[in-house]
């Protein structure tokens, strides 16, 4: 295990979606993994771009790194995944948690896509809970972390854990659990598993919404989260957390890109195929979700 199991971690903040993308580097071999890359989409114009993904590729090239994996922690509801784009340019395998098939089946029905293959074949590898893999000489482990979605996983790489949307920075609390297939109780249990890691474990979150207008932040530790996470530290029981989380979720509108993004992300980041006129079209179901913000 290289560098005593301490990967170099570089975060790239996307202001449009408040997402953090990561390049996780084995300093000995210069192998790296890209975690939760963003494919740019403007919902007002329908325009797509690869500015975020190209920034990651530029970083990889400038540092002389080789991409060993392209990893998504879950099918995202607030941005498109750039996994497919990055695979085409690096040749690196893509991966996600094996329970993505449950998310695919759920959203296949919502989008009425009878011919959609809900079998996870859109990725090169589907990880089960406890699976291990390597990034150069670094050993990585997969933890199943449902709650925010049915398929969420945490990647533990040496002393770093990529916790996606289970917890945010301590001043922002935890992720919502009211998407189709979500569960506040499952989220509580996933958080307990993460907090059972050593106190010094570095935790890297998937979003930062900059409360109070502060600068974006994305790294904490298990000890910090235990001590001061605004949701976790105030709830001593699962029941208390579920009540807090479900009450908070009832006040939140659906993410503005959820219906745009899921049809792309359950397909491994593939955009819809062009139609006869050469244009691509998203399918947008009406009255599919609750939580409309009319006021």
Helix and strand layout, with pairings?
Elements lengths: L7 E7 L4 E7 L5 E5 L2 E5 L4 E3 L1 H13 L2 E6 L8 E2 L1 H8 L3 E4 L2 H12 L13 E3 L4 E4 L2 E7 L8 E5 L2 E5 L19 H12 L6 E4 L13 E3 H7 L9 H12 L8 H8 L30
Parallel strand pairs: 3-6, 6-8, 8-9, 13-14
Antiparallel strand pairs: 1-2, 2-3, 4-5, 4-7, 10-11, 11-12, 12-13, 14-15
Helix pairs in contact: 4-6
Notable traits:
295 residues; alpha/beta; Metallo-beta-lactamase, Chain A; 6-stranded mixed beta sheet
Order of helices and strands: EEEEEHEEHEHEEEEEHEEHHH
Q: Percent of residues in beta strands?
A: 15-25%
Distance between the termini: 54 Å
Principal-axis shape: globular
The biggest sheet, with number of strands, parallel, antiparallel or mixed sense and barrel status, is: 6 strands, mixed
Integer tally of domains: 1
How much helical structure, as a percent, in the residues?
A: 10-25%
Poorly predicted segments? none
How many β-strand runs? 15
Q: Compute the gyration radius: what is it?
A: 18 Å
Instruction: Kindly report the name of the CATH homologous superfamily.
Output: Ribonuclease Z/Hydroxyacylglutathione hydrolase-like
Main sheet: which strands, in order across? 1-2-3-6-8-9
Question: What name does the CATH topology carry?
Answer: Metallo-beta-lactamase, Chain A
**Shape-level CATH architecture:** 4-Layer Sandwich
Q: Averaging pLDDT over every residue, what do you get?
A: 96
Number of helices: 7
CATH C-level class is Alpha Beta
Query: What structural class is derived from the secondary structure elements?
Result: alpha/beta
